[in-house]
Amino acid sequence: MMDLLEAVRLVAAPDVLIAIFASAVYGLVVGSLPGLSATMATALLVPVTFWLSPIAAVATIITASAMAIFSGDIPGCLLRIPGTPASAAYTDEAYALTRKGQAELALGAGLWFSAIGGIVGTLSLVLMAPLLAEMALSFSTFEYFWLAFLGLMCATLVARSSPIKAIASMLLGLLVSCIGMENPAGTPRFTFGITDLLGGIEPIPALVGVFAVSEVMRAMVTPEPPPLPRRKFGSILANQWMLTKKYQWPMWRGNVVGIIIGVLPGAGADMAAWVSYAMSKRFSKEPEKFGTGHPEGLVEAGASNNASLASGWVPSLLFGIPGDTITAIAIGVLYMKGLNPGPTLFTERASSMYALYLIFILANIIMIPLGIVMIRLAATVLRAPRAAVMPVIMLLCAVGAFATGSNLFSVLLVGVFGCLGFVMERNGYPVAALVLGIVMGTMVEQNFITSLIKSDGDILPFFERPVSGVLAAMTFGALLWPLGIWVWNRLRGRRMAAGGAAE
Amino acid sequence: MDRAATGHKPAPGRSRRRFRPQASVLDWATGKQVQGVSVHLSDRVTGGVLVALGAAAAIAGSRLPAVPGQEVGPAAFPLLIGSGLVICGALIAFGIGRSFEVPEEEEAPPGPWRLGGLRALVPPALLLFYVLAADRLGFLLTGAVMVFVAAFALGARPRLALPLAIVAPLLVHLAFYKLLRVPLPEGLLAAPW
User: Fold this and answer.
1) Could you tell me if B27 and B80 lie in one domain?
2) Is B192 a domain residue?
3) Contacts of A409 in chain B (CB under 8 A)
C-alpha cells in the first residue's frame, strides 16, 4: 500500500505530468501523419529522455506510443492511408464507413476501443507480471536463450511477407550485433580496423535509420498523399456505448488476443491487429458485411492493437526481451535510467512499477479527450505539407543520433541503416525482424555461449529443463508454422484440383 | 493514381522531367507503389548477396582466435549465423520462399526506380554531408542546407523551403542545445543563445 501511495506521488510530480501531456500531443500528431510510425515516434524521443527523470522518461514512451497507435487510425479512416502499420489491418473497413458518411462512428470506435484495449492490457500487465516474476527468478541461461530465440522467431511471423526473407532479415540483424567486442570472449569481431565499430552498433541509430530515414527516402520517390477534405464531425462518442454492448464478445476476444500476442516476445501491435481482424471476420455472425463498412472488425482489432501495447511490456520488464520494436527502445531507456529489467524490478522497485501501471491507465484515459480534439483538428494537422515535415524529421534524425553518443559516427550509421532499410523494404524483407535481431543479438549470443560452456558443448540440457523444453517446443512451432501452412495449402489445393478433375 | 491526381503540382523543370507521371497505382492500404513495370532487385540478386555475405561472415568468423581451454568461443555465433544466411539466401535466390507467400502478401512492389529513384539517395547524402560539414560549418548552417535541399527535393517551392530552412534548425538547436544540453557544434555561425 505504501508502494502504491509512493507511486501516486511519483506520477503526480509536475515534470511527469507535463511529460505525459507533451508526449501525448506529440504521439497524436506523429502517429496521424502517414508514414511516421509509432516506433519512429518513440525512437526520436530517446534523446529527450536523457534529460528527464526515470519515471518521466518511461512516461513519455508509454504515452507517445499509445497515442500514436490510436492516431494511426485517423488517416486510415479518412484517407485510406494507415498512419501506423498497426492500423493497416482495418484501414479499408474504416474508410468504407467514412464513405458511407459514418466517419464519426469509425473514428470514435478507434478511439473508444483503443482506450478500452489499453486499459485492459494494463490490467493484464498488473496481474501477470508479478506471477511471472516469481517464475522468472528460477530461469537460467537456457530459458533466457529460448525466450530470446522465441522472440526472434515471432518477429519473423509478424511480417506479412515470405518467412524465409523474414528469417534472413533477422539473421542479418544478428550478424550486425556481432560487430564489436560485446561478446562473451571480448574479441573484436568484424570491425575492419575502425575504432568506432569496436563498441558495436548501438540499436538507436539503427532504429532511427531503418524506421525514420528510410521513410524520408520513400517520401522522395512516392507521390504526396491527397489533402484531407474538410468536414464537420458530429458527436464522436455518441454511439460507442451501443457498439460496446452490441459487440461485447468481439471486444473481449480482441483484448485477450492482443494481450496474448503482446506477451509473446517479438510480436506486437501490427500482428495483434491483423490476427484480431481475421478472427473477427471468421467468427462473426455476419462475415459478408466485412469490408463494406462494418464496425465489428474495428472494435475487435482496435482494442487488440492497444491491448498488445501494454502487455508487450511484460517480457520487456521481466526478462529484458522486447515484446515489439517499441519496447525494444523502451528497454534501452530503462537500462539508461537504472531501472534494469528483470524479476527483481518488481520486488525492489515496486513503487516504480506501480507508477508505470498508473501512467498506462492515465495515458489511456486522457487519450479520449485529447483524441477527440485531435480528430477535430485532423484536417488541419494533415494539411501540413510533406515537403515541410520530412526535412525536419531528417534533421531530428541527425541530431537525435548525435545526441545518443555525442559522436558523428552515429549519424553516419543512421544514413547507412536508412539505405539498408529502404532497400530491404522495397524487396520484401521485413525491417522489424532486422531491428529485433540487432537489439537481441548480444543477449542471444551471451546466453547461448554461456549455456554451451556450462553444458560442455552438449545441446541436450537445452531441452531437459521443463520450462526450457516448453519454450523450445514453442520456438520450433513458430519456426515450422509457415511450413505447416504451406503443406496444408498444398494438400488442400491438390484435393480441390482432384475434386475438380473428378466432376 | 498519378501525380496530377494527388493535387500536388511538381515543380517545373528538372523535377517534372525526373518524375514523369507514370501508369502507376498507389496502393494506399500498404502505402507502397504498385507498378506494372518494376525495376527492383530480383530475389536472385538479394539472395545472392545474402549467400555471399553469409559465407564471408562464416569464413571470417571461423578464423577468429579461440579462447584457450574452451570449446566454444567467439567463432561459434558468426559461423552459425553465416551458415543460416547462406541457406536462406540460397532458398530466396531459387525462389523457394515465394511459394510460402500468400499471393496478397506479395506486396513489396518497387516504385519508379529509374531516375526518380536517385532522389531516394538525397537523405543519406545529406546525412553524410552533416557528418563531413557539421564541425566546420556549425550546426545552424549545416542544418539549414539539409532542410533546404530535402524540402526542395520533395517539391517544395522556395517560398516554403527558405523560411523552413531558417526556422527549423533554430528551433531544433534551441531544443537540443538549450534544453537537452547536446553539444552541437558552433562552427561559423553561433546561435544567439
Assistant:
1) no
2) no
3) 131
| Contact check, Cβ <8 Å, A161/B120 | no
Cell of B72: 566454444
Domain count, chain B: 3
| CB burial string B72-89: b at 16+ within 10 A, e below | bbbbbbbbbbbbbbbbbb
Residue-range definition of the domain harbouring residue A37: 2-226+234-502
Average pLDDT of the residues of chain B:
72
Task: Extract the C-alpha cell encoding A251.
Answer: 471486444
In a domain, B50, yes or no: yes
Lowest mean pLDDT among A375-389, A393-407, B36-50, B83-97: B36-50
Residue of chain B whose Cα is closest to the Cα of A182 = B74
As a whole number of angstroms, the distance between CA A196 and CA A181 comes to 11
| One domain, residues B164 and B126 | yes
Residue after which a domain boundary falls, among B113, B134, B150: B113
Cβ–Cβ under 8 Å, residues A263 and A323? yes
Vertex B66, ends B62 and B68: CA angle to 5°? 160
Distance from CA of B37 to the nearest CA of A (A): 14
Decide if B63 is inside a domain.
yes
ipTM > 0.85?
Answer: no
Contacts with A100 (C-beta within 8 Å, 6 or more apart), sequence order: A293
Q: Which domain holds residue B12?
A: 4-40+109-113
C-alpha cell, B12: 517545373
At A499, the amino acid letter reads G
Residues of B in contact with A51 (CB under 8 A): 179-181
Nearest to B139 by CA among A388, A410, A51, A395: A395
Whether the pLDDT of residue A18 is over 90: the answer is yes
Q: Sign of dihedral through CA atoms A440, A446, A449, A453?
A: negative
Domain end among B60, B77, B105: B105
Query: Where do we find the cell 507533451?
Result: A22
DSSP state of B35: E
